[in-house]
Amino acid sequence: MTENEDQVAGLLLAAGGGRRLGGRPKALLEHRGHPLVEHAVAVLRAAGCARVHVVLGARAADVRARAALDGCVLVDNPDWEQGMGSSLRTGLDSLAGTGARAALVSLVDQPGIGAPAMARVRAGYRDETSLVSATYAGVRGHPVLLGAAHWPGIAATATGDRGARAYLREHADRIMLVECADVAQPYDIDTEADLVHLE
């Protein structure tokens, strides 16, 4: 592992309770014979993230028991019901002091975004001031790479389900945009109708 490889950690937000899925936690939805959280970790690893932190929330004990997450740092977010912003803050906080200089942030409910898109965004990393975002036909989406210099500002503005959106809007001129529509589909698994995307 080169020094550069170790500087970008994978940060998987997997705490959601699947409110619109009848309360089934998204991390445990089945995809290709495995819980979705396992698939998402494998994608981050395939994209070159040796260190992966996984933020858990809804039914965290079940996720720990049923998903093979060996080698990951599992982080519990007690405030997961407050939305993605709290999970992002919890995850970034867990990376402080690890030596990571950037976080490649992905969402557990976007299985259409695979390693090629993750690797493209990760390749935009230069140093702790980097901000990189995937775009789909010009529209910003996930994954995003957040340099450590931005973590305090992001944590201060990440509320509700907005995550880093407010911070990224304020710093739009600093973001490196990486088009990924040719290699990924950025759908979310939010409702029963979305389950058709799972294999």
Overview of this structure, please?
- Helix content is 28%, strand content 23%.
- By secondary structure, the chain is α/β, with parallel strands linked by helices.
- The protein has a seven-stranded mixed β-sheet with strand order 5-4-1-6-8-7-9, sandwiched between helices. Strands 2-3 form a two-stranded antiparallel sheet.
- Strand 2 and strand 3 form a beta hairpin.
- Helix 4 runs antiparallel to helix 6.
- The protein is globular.
- The mean pLDDT is 94.
Write the layout of secondary structure elements.
Blueprint: H1 3-7, E1 8-14, E2 30-31, E3 34-35, H2 36-46, E4 52-56, H3 60-66, E5 73-76, H4 84-95, E6 102-107, H5 115-122, E7 131-136, E8 139-147, H6 151-157, H7 165-170, E9 176-179
Parallel strand pairs: 1-4, 1-6, 4-5, 7-9
Antiparallel strand pairs: 2-3, 6-8, 7-8
